């Protein structure tokens, strides 16, 4: 079989830390043909380091000259839409970093360019692709642990003031939101991947310490179609950083705690008292193989989908769900109202944006 020809848009840290090592790990299936970035010197540096022959400063030039099968988008969020649309229109499948788009209207415009059998646009939500998440999702589907009832989803990270010196960070127009959009999105996606769709949210968000336009912390209470209730916290103010999800079922509590990625050692299944003596059943709950959450595993599944001409996970409805939730979270926080999913419409402030410009988040206190 011929290798998938890959073009990379963006030569920043996420490209060199995550995507290029991932592509090298799949070098039996892919060929990295070209990279593009507005910074020609950065392109030359990365291309030299990773032995990439095609070097461009323009998306259009790369697409016209190289005609890649797969376009990987690693730009800042405000550039996602243009690059993804151009890739699809050129006939390339697209894999784009998070957040998928800045708005739901942008997401729907991109999805309208997809064609049955491909190309499709999918998005980086690597935490759903580890064996721990896959095992738990299967257990939920089979009812192995009983009915889901309570969930916690905490992204408690720390970003210093200097983090926001990068011009596009902390601004609604270029980042689309604060930690709910740019940090907690992975944990929230994993929550919904395991427990399914959400039905309503009540949220608060504010700016407590960072000098930015967007929020630096948010809290949400969420109801899910399964009947479970979840709390979601997203913060960039938390010195002891952790990513923590907890799922309480009738027969067990399941937890995963990590920072930027997990393997099986990050997960724990704790039986309810009435199940504690059934050791054979309890021992069967743990994953049988150890596949870490990673870009590598998600890319493997994406390449399989390309070969089969089928929609990959983390695309379409599957990729929109978390972005839709974030829009509802901001709507609830800014209006002070509960937002039901059934009431969302394809127009208005929180469809074409994530923020009402008339709503001002509080400024950090001095001292």
Overview of the molecule:
The protein is α/β, with parallel strands linked by helices and 367 residues long. The protein has 2 domains: 4-124, 3-Layer(aba) Sandwich (Rossmann fold), CATH 3.40.50.720; 127-295 and 322-352, Dihydrodipicolinate Reductase, domain 2 (2-Layer Sandwich). 34% of the residues lie in helices and 24% in strands. It has helices at residues 13-25, 40-50, 59-66, 80-89, 104-111, 131-142, 172-175, 179-182, 185-195, 279-284, 295-308, 316-335, 349-352; strands at residues 4-9, 30-36, 54-56, 70-73, 93-96, 121-123, 148-158, 198-206, 217-224, 229-235, 237-249, 252-258, 267-271, 339-340. It has an 8-stranded mixed sheet with strand order 13-12-11-7-10-9-8-14, with helices on one face. It has a 6-stranded parallel sheet with strand order 3-2-1-4-5-6, sandwiched between helices. A hairpin with a 4-residue loop joins strand 9 and strand 10. Helix 4 packs parallel to helix 5, helix 6 packs parallel to helix 9 and helix 9 (185-195) crosses helix 12 (316-335). Keywords: NAD. InterPro entries: Gfo/Idh/MocA-like_OxRdtase_N, Gfo/Idh/MocA_Oxidoreductase, GFO_IDH_MocA-like_dom, NAD(P)-bd_dom_sf. GO terms for molecular function: nucleotide binding. Residues 134-242 form the GFO/IDH/MocA-like oxidoreductase domain.
């Amino acid at each position: 079989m011929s290798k998938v020809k890959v073009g990379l848009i963006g030569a920043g840290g996420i490209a060199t830390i995550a995507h290029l090592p991932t592509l090298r790990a799949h070098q039996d299936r892919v060929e990295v043909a070209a990279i593009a970035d507005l910074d020609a010197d950065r392109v030359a540096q990365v291309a030299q380091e990773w032995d990439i022959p095609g070097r461009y400063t323009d998306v259009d030039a790369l697409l016209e000259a190289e005609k890649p099968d797969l376009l990987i988008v690693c730009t800042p969020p405000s550039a996602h839409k243009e690059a993804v649309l151009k890739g699809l229109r050129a006939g390339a499948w697209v894999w784009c970093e998070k957040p998928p788009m800045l708005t739901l209207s942008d997401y729907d415009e991109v999805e309208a360019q997809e064609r049955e059998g491909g190309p499709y646009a999918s998005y980086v939500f690597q935490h759903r692709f580890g064996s721990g998440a896959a095992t738990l999702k299967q257990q939920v589907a089979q009812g192995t642990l009983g009915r889901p009832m309570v969930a916690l989803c905490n992204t408690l990270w720390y970003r210093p003031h200097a983090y926001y010196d990068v011009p596009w960070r902390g601004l609604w127009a270029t980042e689309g939101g604060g930690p709910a959009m740019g940090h907690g999105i992975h944990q929230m996606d994993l929550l919904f991947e395991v427990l399914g769709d959400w039905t309503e949210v009540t949220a608060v968000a504010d700016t407590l310490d960072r000098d930015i336009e967007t929020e630096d912390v948010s809290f949400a209470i969420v109801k899910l179609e399964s009947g479970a209730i979840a709390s979601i916290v997203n913060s960039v103010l938390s010195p002891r950083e952790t990513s923590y999800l907890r799922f309480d079922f009738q027969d067990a509590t399941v937890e995963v705690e990590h920072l930027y990625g997990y393997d099986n050692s990050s997960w724990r299944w704790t039986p309810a008292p009435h199940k504690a003596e059934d050791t054979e059943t309890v021992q069967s709950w743990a994953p049988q193989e150890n596949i870490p959450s990673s870009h590598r595993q998600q890319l493997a599944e994406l390449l399989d989908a390309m070969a089969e001409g089928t929609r990959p996970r983390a695309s379409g409805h599957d990729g929109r769900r978390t972005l839709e939730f974030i829009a509802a979270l901001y709507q609830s926080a800014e209006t002070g109202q509960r937002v039901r999913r059934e009431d969302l419409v394809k127009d208005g402030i929180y469809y074409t944006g994530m923020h009402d410009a008339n709503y001002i988040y509080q400024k950090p206190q001095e001292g």
